[in-house]
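Page 47, continued from p. 46.
Same chain as before, 97 aa.
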Amino acid sequence: MVQMTTTQDPLRLAAAVILGIVTGSILFFIVALLIGTFNDIARTNISITTNVAENIFSLVLLVVLIVVCVAGFWWKVTTTPPSEQKPETGPETEQED
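Result:
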């Protein structure tokens, strides 16, 4: 069973959101490229392009990919415990009297 940690570091959560947005955007461009290539090869009319301002299907795909990626990274941050720094175990320095 996955156990969620009680408190989260805001920096880890912010990193999860930023990474989710970047990853979702990159995945959108990859999916749009693959669909565009399929359109050219098969001569179909799937209306997914990278122009989200004029095409509602592209906007929906972009938003869905970003939300899924942010949720995935958020889940990963909340279920993974933060790494703990080990104290330095270097040689002890002696002070001369």
